[in-house]
C-alpha cells in the first residue's frame, strides 16, 4: 500500500475538481496536506474539514497565482506553515479558454500563460529551498499538449510548455534527489470542463477513448499519489498519460 506518512504536500487549486481529489487522496495516503485556493475559500475549508474528519492533517493557504508575485507569496505562506521541508508539490491550479485562433485575445493568452506556466515555474523556484532528497514535484499537463483539440490552441500551448519544463526541471534537480513529473489527463468531468457534462461532450469523449466512460477527478488522483510516493522513486522527467486511452 502506498504510504506518505510523515510527508507534507502542497496542492495548488485544491478547493475543487482534480485538485480536491488529489488533496483527499494524498491525505488518505498519510500526508499532511496544504490546500491552496485562489478565491474559493469556503470550498477550501470544506476540503480541510473532510481531511480532518477522517483523522488527517490539513491546512488551507491562499494566493492569487494570476499575479506576478503570487507564487512568491504562496511560497512564503507555505514556509510559515510547514517550516523548512516540503516533500510533495502538486501544481494543479490552471485555467482554460476555448476560443478559435481568430477569437483569442492578447489578454486571454497572457492570462493562460501567467497561471498555467509562469506560476508553476516560479513556485518551483521559490520552494526549492524546502525540497530535499526524495521530494517529488508533480505538474499538470493535458491531452491537448500532444493532440489537436478544437479551439484550445492557446491552452494547449501552455500544457506543451509544462511538458518541456518537466524535462528541464528533472534534469537540473535530479542531482539533488528531487523528482519532477507531470500527469496528462484527458477529458475529466469538472467545473473547468463543462463540455464533458453535455450529451455532445459525452459522445465526443467516448468516441476518442479506449475506455468507454467519462473520467472523474478520482481517476486522476491515484496517479498523483503514485508519483509522489517512493513507489515512483525511479521515475522522473516523464509525463504520465492518465486519459483512458484517448486518441490512441
What features would you describe in this structure?
- This protein has seven helices and seven strands.
- The relative contact order is 0.15.
- The model has no long low-confidence stretch (mean pLDDT 95).
- The chain has a single domain, classed as NAD(P)-binding Rossmann-like Domain (Rossmann fold, 3-Layer(aba) Sandwich), CATH 3.40.50.
- It has a seven-stranded parallel beta sheet, sandwiched between helices.
- The radius of gyration is 17 Å and the shape is globular.
- With 248 residues, the protein is an alpha/beta fold.
- It is 42% helix and 14% strand.
- Helix 2 links the parallel strand 2 and strand 3.
- Helix 1 packs across helix 7 and helix 3 packs parallel to helix 4.
- The two termini are 30 Å apart.
Brief description of this entry?
With 248 residues, this protein is α/β, with parallel strands linked by helices. It has helices spanning 17-28, 41-53, 70-82, 106-127, 153-173, 199-208, 217-228, and strands at residues 8-11, 32-37, 58-62, 88-91, 136-140, 179-185, 239-242.
Key terms for this structure?
248 residues, alpha/beta, Rossmann fold, seven-stranded parallel β-sheet, 7 helices, globular
